[in-house]
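Notes from hallway chat w/ T.B., transcribed later so I don't forget. T.B. wanted the structure written out for a chain they're using in a teaching module, and asked if we could keep both sequence and structure tokens in one place. Agreed to drop them here.
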Amino acid sequence: MSVFDLFRLDGQVALITGATRGIGLGIAQAFADAGARLVLSSKTPRPEAIEKLRNAGARIDYIQADMQQEAAPARLIAETLKLTGGRLDILVNNAGVAQHGDTETFPPNHYRRLMDINVDAVFRACQAALPTMRAQRHGIILNIGSISGLVSNIPQPQAAYNASKAAVHMLTKSLASDYAGEGIRANAIAPGYIDTDMTSGGLADPVWGPVWRQMTPMPKVGTPADIGAAALYLCSPAAAFVTGEILVVDGGYTIR
């Protein structure tokens, strides 16, 4: 077997949330190139993104789901299993939201939305996927965290968001510890500043943007393809001995 074969996902079923734009779409493209069968989900359908992948030869099903709704993660897993004949090899919890604001004035509804989507939905999706993965004696969970779960990045105030991503990291480590003996690996990626719709406003901000760039040793902003490549590694046989890892992909931001 060639080392390149270790990065193939042929025949693997991968469910990706928040998959029709930004980081999620970058992961979907990487997995499609590696031969995975994809089930993609997002709150807002974007048929053009799905069609582009299909035209390139990817096998894709799409399920609309608003992950803020308490029942959505379990429904999403159940519908995926119906589509795939009961198989789920890879779960990528990518759907998330960002919200900045001073702690003392942070609106309760904004805090609740952050936690509902960034933490609770991730926990529920893992919870719903685990019975199938345990029965298979095989499964891979990849959660998308953030450098904001590792450092208090500046200059924007975002204590609630940082807390939500730190929770994702600890959830990932706990899952890895609890289920390693059953053939299940759990890892996370902590992206730095990636050029997506979510970060476009901050990157364009005359105060925030220059600070974000100055804090990043590499003189560029990351791309969804950068995260897609990291996700492919962690979800492929190349990472068969890797679990409980928080892989930082940030151009060096967190080393300063």
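Follow-up for T.B.: DSSP finds eight helices and seven strands in the chain. Might be a good example for the class.
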